[in-house]
Specification:
Chain lengths: 386, 276
């Protein structure tokens, strides 16, 4: 399919906004299809790809609404190409039904959600981190999904490439989740530095007669039939058997939904990603993502300079949550601090993971990012109390 | 030179493992499906390269019966899925099967923009004036005064003329037929399949089990025989202000234009920019 040979790519540095880095990452990952709908603060991704994709032989289309954009992306991926859409909170809400379709029918795709203040129209030009659960549980039913939460323009570039790789390998939608500050701030991005996985989709091969489109390999992922290759299969959002046709047989349903839900377990080594800073001896561990983690990184240095044993654990993969790494990073921690731009979403997951530990939140919903000083003050207070 | 296609046997085009089908006795959708398959047969369209995309509802379930690359998508969205698929894979022949609720209510926005864009797709809308799958609720095409499970005292909303809507939105090809005339339906669908841009074809189909029963419209054969005449009686039409429809519902090819096909135009523009 659209495997792009990146071996000759020369590492180069560019000054890019987070959104521009995302567009460049998509192109370098072999994405050849983008469907979108204008929404602040994600529109720069669409604008940039409207220039870059046609030049590279790909397709850019602005659809009539957010729902159509998501549907067109899933449709393009069913045709066999790597496809992307980008949006923000209100648009992400509208996309949920078709994200669930992609999860259930196992259609790879990448969806960017640039978080802005909510609920509803909220604060379109202000940052937020309040879509943590919408990315995980936004569509109905039980389904697996991967959510990546980069914290810089450079990391957005890398994680966009990784998002496409994981989507193809695991046959699942992958959400790229970052906030307005990172999306629209320009930073130096080293391009081509990270060795991509070079993932291509596992296509169906072999005899047509015995082929079952949802009979999975040992890794839990069924090879996908490509239209035109002669398999002539059926894809549906109805609960289906290995044959791809609808089924309500209790055993068949349990077996297939069970396999779907457990699919990502086979790939946790590839999926899990995090950064742990000075956690080895930390008595207080700060857990944060995105722009809050950037501030927390500076707070760690400030606290250490004052003699407090403070560390930072930053999940880069948000869902599935890297719980084993979190436990390792917090083994000496007496207290956990979770600074975030919401009223306690990430904190809820940390409380669930570390039930025997004191977990405190630092929640800001004013539409401003949290400052290093605010986090350092809260961490210092915790360090002196424990 | 036109060559006579070999004998058409509908069973060659159906998935035997999906039989018996789930349509109610007397449902018109089977005749529409037969006409589509017959048209595909006569045009010798390679089923390996045929993609059928459908939405949700009775019409949406038809894709599963066709031995081709079939995609049963979400409610109202098959045109949007098909837009992505057809743009990503211009080598495929993409047919959309949808119903009146799927296409005109929840998916109405996608219909008008598909017409405007004029991407090569063949959209077959089976209009039975009712939400059959969910038990018979009023739809955007339910005739006025008709009884449904959500209009217990008779429908008071004006209905859509889907073809007039498609023409106004710029569809490259628009046609309508009734299930009573299967060969005519087949011919119309053939014209649609051969049209280089977006083709919208409405088929007036009968829901005897739910709609017919509720409105005392008789047996399925009686309903079929009354198509074009009593099924949508002029008395009802005259009683309301109908922005789209002043006379009987016309059938056959209603509009055809030579607007540029969207996919080809998009690719040509990209090639021109790349050459600069």
């Amino acid at each position: 399919m659209n495997a792009i040979d990146r071996s000759h790519a020369k590492p180069a540095a560019k000054l890019l906004s987070g959104n521009a880095a995302c567009a460049q990452g998509a192109l370098d990952a072999g994405c050849t299809f983008f469907a979108g709908y204008p929404i602040t603060p994600s529109s720069e991704i669409a604008e940039r790809l409207s220039v870059l994709l046609p030049k590279a032989g790909g397709v850019f289309i602005q659809m009539e609404d957010e729902i159509a954009a998501m549907a067109a992306v899933v449709g393009a991926s069913m045709g066999g190409v790597k496809a992307l859409t980008a949006t923000s909170g209100p648009g992400f809400s509208l996309k949920q039904e078709n994200i669930g379709y992609a999860a259930g029918a196992e259609i790879p795709c990448v969806v960017v959600n640039v978080m802005r203040g909510g609920p509803s129209t909220g604060m379109p030009t202000r940052p937020s981190q309040a879509d943590i659960y919408q990315t995980r549980y936004g569509s109905h039913g039980d389904y697996p999904i991967i959510v990546l939460a980069p914290a810089s323009a450079r990391e957005i570039y890398d994680e966009t490439i990784r998002a496409f790789d994981l989507a193809e390998i695991c046959r699942t939608p992958v959400i790229l989740l970052y906030d307005q500050v990172i999306a629209q701030s320009s930073e130096t991005v080293a391009l081509g530095g990270r060795a991509p996985v070079h993932a291509t989709r596992k296509w169906a091969s072999g005899p047509r007669e015995s082929y079952k489109p949802y009979a999975a390999d040992a890794d839990g992922v069924p090879p996908m039939p490509r239209p035109g290759d002669g398999y002539r299969t059926h894809t549906t959002g109805l609960t289906h058997s290995e044959s791809g046709f609808p089924s309500q047989d209790p055993e068949t349903v349990t077996r297939n939904l069970g396999r779907l839900y457990a699919k990502l377990d086979h790939f946790r080594d590839l999926i899990d990603s995090y950064e742990a800073v000075r956690c080895e001896d930390a008595e207080v561990v700060i857990v944060a993502i995105g722009i809050s983690a950037r501030a927390a990184r500076r707070a760690v240095d400030a606290c250490r300079a004052e003699g407090h044993k403070v560390g930072l654990f930053r999940p880069i993969t948000l869902w599935p949550f890297p719980e084993i790494a979190l436990r390792e990073a917090t083994q000496h921690a007496k207290a956990i601090l979770v600074p975030e731009l919401n009223i306690g979403q990430l904190r809820l997951e940390i409380e669930r993971q570390l039930r025997d530990r004191r977990v405190e939140g630092l929640h800001l919903i004013s539409g401003e990012p949290i400052t290093p000083a605010q986090i350092a003050a809260a961490a210092t207070k915790l360090a002196t109390e424990v | 030179m036109f060559r006579e296609a070999p004998h058409f046997d509908v069973r060659d085009y159906l998935r035997k493992e999906m039989m018996p089908h789930f349509l109610c006795p007397g449902c018109g959708h089977g005749m529409a499906l037969r006409a589509l398959l017959w048209a595909l047969h006569e045009l010798k369209i390679d089923r390996d390269k045929l993609a059928v995309v459908s939405g949700i509802g009775c019409a949406g379930r038809l894709s599963a019966y066709i031995d081709a690359n079939t995609f049963h998508t979400t409610h109202g969205r098959p045109l949007a899925y098909a837009t992505g698929l057809a743009l990503a894979r211009p080598d495929l022949h993409v047919v959309v099967i949808t119903g009146d609720g799927d296409c005109l209510a929840i998916g109405g926005n996608h219909l008008i923009h598909a017409c405007r864009r004029n991407l090569k797709l063949t959209c077959l809308m089976l209009n039975n004036e009712i939400y059959g799958m969910t038990g018979g609720q009023v739809s955007p095409t339910t005739s006025e005064t008709r009884l449904t499970t959500t209009t217990p005292h008779g429908n008071t909303e004006p209905n859509f003329d889907a073809c007039a809507l498609a023409i106004a939105a710029g569809a490259g090809f628009v046609g309508r037929e009734v299930t009573r005339h299967v060969p005519k339906m087949k011919e119309l669908i053939k014209h649609g399949l051969q049209h280089p841009g977006f083709a919208f074809i409405e088929v007036l189909s009968d829901c005897t089990e739910v709609y017919g029963r509720k409105n005392d419209m008789g047996s399925s054969s009686e309903m079929v025989m009354r198509q074009k005449s009593e099924m949508r009686p002029s008395a009802y039409r005259d009683s309301v202000d109908e922005p789209f429809r002043s006379t009987d519902l016309p059938t056959g090819v209603l509009a055809r234009n030579a607007r540029p096909e969207y996919g080809a135009a998009l690719r040509a523009a990209a090639a021109a920019r790349a050459a600069k």
